[in-house]
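Subgroup meeting minutes
Present: P.N., E.W., G.H.
Scribe: E.W.

1. P.N. recapped why we're keeping a running log of single-chain structure predictions: easier to compare across weeks, and new members can see raw inputs and outputs side by side.
2. G.H. added today's entry (295 aa).
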Amino acid sequence: MSLALFSLFDRSKAREESVETSCDCSAPAEFRRAAVARRRVFSRVDWRGAVLPVVAIAIWWAASEAHLVKSGLLVTPAQVLATAWQQIVSGSLLRALSASLAREASGFVIGTLGGLLLGCALGFSRVATRMIGPSFDTFKQISLFAWIPLISVWFGLGDAAKVVFLSLAALLPVTAHTCDGIHAVPRAYIEVARAFRYSRWQLIRGVIIPAALPSIFTGIYLALIYSWLATLGAEYLLVAGSGIGNTLIDGSEQFRMDVVLFGVIVVGVTGWALNALARAAERAIFARRLRSSGQ
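Output recorded in log:
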């Protein structure tokens, strides 16, 4: 029954992910499979999203070549590319990016696990909802950066303080969406499960958790994005150590706009990659559950 309910919850996702393909049956099987895979990739990618970056780069290149701005602060794309190559060859990019991603991963994992536990407690326990719920509602209204002075006093300016800050950034969306997802499970599903004499554990594992998964995944996805954004904020405000945020700070202090623009591009590309990774993982998990329900 739980598998059937799960397939009902995600039937709309399956329709969005399905892609109708046709192939030449006379071609070898491996060529047909390759053609189908290529069509799926190109059908899922909206190439119109590349129009704005291409236009922006073209305008930037034209303005720099025409010397429309008489300032050393407007660097050319060629200078940014040279800086990128220098950062890659010297290993500075790898050191900075790996340090930032290590902090982001640590804070994301700690905050997500804590958010799942707290969200489940608020979702399943009325006592926890009455005792902890009002405090959590107040806590999430406080700006995340308001905790920086307190965190810096308690944990210093090193990686420990940054990980604590990132954990808070990931904790809030996971807790809120987990709790809301559990509370939003339709009453009819629970009544049907009780009619089949499900135990409490069977009800949670087979009905409530599958029904709340879309909301839980939304919270985890937001936690991944928020923790990456908070990584840069932590590296700006807690400046000890290396990272992409420190690269941006060094570039601005030295008035090297090529380094600043390079850092901004790295931040954007990394955020895009994390977003794509999260979406791909979500699709893979739901597709696997749908295949299991079909069996």
